[in-house]
Amino acid sequence: PGMRRLRLAAPDLALLDPSPGQDLMVSVPTGPAGDDGVVPTTNRRYSIRAVVSTVDAAHVVVDVATPGSGRGARWASSTVPGDVVVAAISQNLHNVVLRRHDADGDTLPL
Question: Taking Cα atoms as reference points, which of 6, 15, 4 lies closest to residue 94?
């Protein structure tokens, strides 16, 4: 059992000032694309661990529990840098497209 730390980047994240307990709602894929090309998804919420701003960009950090074979665990275990993640941040009240940008997802012990 463990956790996977994901660093997700998007424009304007430097403007985000998360409150304690604020979360990120992520559309997690639940299966392969259908004949229409649409990938089915379900929403999962992850607490924002940090928002890190640098001169070049900003990213949000979330930790995802990866024990078992739940949808969130499967998604977090299989995502790779460059994957597009559709998420909503309640403070902004709109969807943002985030991209995995770390060289490798950190695996953290529980």
Answer: 15
The continuous run of DSSP H or E covering 78 comes out as helix 71-78
Asked if 2 contacts 76 with a C-beta cutoff of 8 angstroms, the reply is no
Name which residue leads in pLDDT, 84 or 105: 84
Confidence band of 35 (pLDDT split at 50, 70, 90): very high
**DSSP class per residue in 8-61:** EE-TTGGG--PPTT-EEEEEEE-S---TTSPPPEEEEEEEEEEEEE-SS-EEEE
Give the rounded percent of residues in the chain with a pLDDT score beyond 70. Answer: 77
Type of residue numbered 76: A
pLDDT tens digits, one per residue of 36-53: 988 899 999 998 888 887
